[in-house]
Amino acid sequence: MTKPPAPPPRSPAPRRLPPRYPLLQNEPVVPTVVWVGRIEPLKDLHTLIRAFQLVRDELPDARLRLAGPVPEHAEAYAQSCHALVDRLGLRDSVDFTGPVANSRKAYAAGHVVALPGTAERIPYTVIEAMMCGRPTVSSDVGGVAEAVGEAGLVVAPGNPVAFAAACTDLLTDPQRRRELGAAARRRALAHFTTGKMLPVYEQLYRDVRAHGAQGAPLPRRAAHGLQHVR
Length: 230
Description:
By secondary structure, the chain is α/β, with parallel strands linked by helices. It is built from 9 helices and 6 strands; from the N terminus they run E-H-E-H-E-H-E-H-E-H-E-H-H-H-H. Helix 1 crosses helix 6 (160-171).
């Protein structure tokens, strides 16, 4: 009697890497708003700086930390941001920290992570901050509201009054900060890990391949998904 072939050797279990954005446990002493990104016009830092002036009216000790590089095409815009800070008398409370090697360290320096802007597809800064358990205040553009859900504050773009009110609300309410930060981390882990997102993209590509070649309308989930990957 012929013996059945031996089963192929089992592949070793993949090594689990430590999370890139583990939960931040502590907050700074001074009330601080943090922004991370490239300093360029689409990021609308003018709105954030003007909003921060209003925050300072309520919280004189508050600080704003702006972390990120200046692209060559945006040097004039960066200079305009510095000029606005000087014009509003905020030089002693606004820090331009330059590029950061680890965005988590930048988020750790603040109580609230801000994302103003006039355009945003997938808001990576917000998702990273959510992973760290930091509450966010964002402009309602692109895919921001969909990413944040009920786990952060979203306001109309270009509105420094609304942006300031949202930041001040979180800076002055530790319990709400903790609750929103915890909800943000739960949402990020539920929707935005590699293990969660890869199957979604794989299904998206299958839908496109199955329907696109025939000229048929895409399923709603695929058409919706393409809005955020183009």
